[in-house]
Amino acid sequence: MVLNQATLKRDGVQDYVSLRATALIILAYSVFIVGYFLLTPEISYEAWTGLFSNLAVKAATFITLVCIMVHTRIGLWQVLTDYVKCSTMRSVLGFALNLMALAYVVVGLFVLWGV
């Protein structure tokens, strides 16, 4: 039996692993930010811009934004296929919500690299 690995179709295992991996990255970033708030005695604009002027923090934030988008895409697909029975409405909602998730990443990029 020959399997075509070049297709763009997703399967349940890929979705499962993607959701768990992105959730771990989002959790790690959240723990980092909460730890920063707890360990920094005074949060000021200077401290906040100092944190986000670091290239590693910018990269981690961008990776987390992309993970949030991937996590959202998979979750929206699962919810829409379960609860929206009309295929046209499901397609329109999926397109609009995925476009919104992409817009959040793009806006996040402009905000992040503008610091």
Descriptive key words:
115 residues; 3 helical TM bundles of succinate and fumarate reductases; 80% helix
Strand content: under 5%
Helix content: over 70%
Structural class: mainly alpha
Spell the H/E element sequence: HHHH
Q: What is the CATH architecture term?
A: Up-down Bundle
Level-1 CATH class name: Mainly Alpha
**Total DSSP E strands:** 0
Coarse shape: elongated
Give the overall average pLDDT. Answer: 90
Radius of gyration: 18 Å
Number of helices: 4
The description of the largest β-sheet is: none
Find the CATH superfamily: Fumarate reductase/succinate dehydrogenase, transmembrane subunit
Distance between the termini: 53 Å
Domain count: 1
Compact description:
A ubiquinone binds at residue 83. The protein is 80% helix and 0% strand. The protein is mostly helical.
Topology:
Elements: H1 12-39, H2 45-52, H3 55-83, H4 87-113
Overview of the structural elements:
- Pathway: Carbohydrate metabolism; tricarboxylic acid cycle.
- With 115 residues, the protein is mostly helical.
- It has one domain (12-113): Fumarate reductase/succinate dehydrogenase, transmembrane subunit (3 helical TM bundles of succinate and fumarate reductases).
- Helices cover 80% and strands 0% of the residues.
- It starts with 11 loop residues before the first helix and ends with a helix.
